[in-house]
Design goal:
Elements: E1 8-15, E2 18-26, E3 29-35, E4 45-54, E5 57-65, E6 81-87, E7 96-101
Parallel strand pairs: 5-7
Antiparallel strand pairs: 1-2, 2-3, 3-6, 4-5
GO molecular function, one term: peptidase activity
InterPro entries: PrcB_C_dom
Pfam families: PrcB_C
Length: about 100
């Protein structure tokens, strides 16, 4: 049993240009985070579309959103990211993560 206040990373890695982290949040809850790295403006976004958990395997579907060509964005460095919180049936010390883009 993991104490309620004990949170730790149970998976992390990089696939192509996306970095991911999976946190065990205690009480059979996890958080999945995706990071797209440094971008030149706020028009870049990343969105988690779906998360499927099967035992110690997590499949994360996501979408990259590019700036609209006809829009004006202030030139400020941004770091697009998104997160998903969910419940799990069984707790594993580590998870295998598969990322899929829409």
């Amino acid at each position: 049993m993991i104490p309620k206040d004990h949170r730790y990373i149970c998976a992390e890695g990089i696939e192509e240009d996306i970095t991911y982290k999976v946190w065990n949040m205690g009480e059979k809850k996890i958080k999945v985070q995706l990071f797209w790295g440094e971008k030149p403006n706020r028009g870049y976004k990343i969105r988690i579309r779906d998360v499927v958990i099967d035992g110690d395997k997590i499949k994360v579907s996501y979408k990259k959103i590019l700036p609209k060509p006809d829009s004006v964005y202030s030139q400020v460095i941004s770091y697009p990211c998104d997160s998903w919180d969910g419940n799990i049936e069984d707790v594993y010390p580590q998870y295998l993560v598969e990322l899929q883009t829409d």
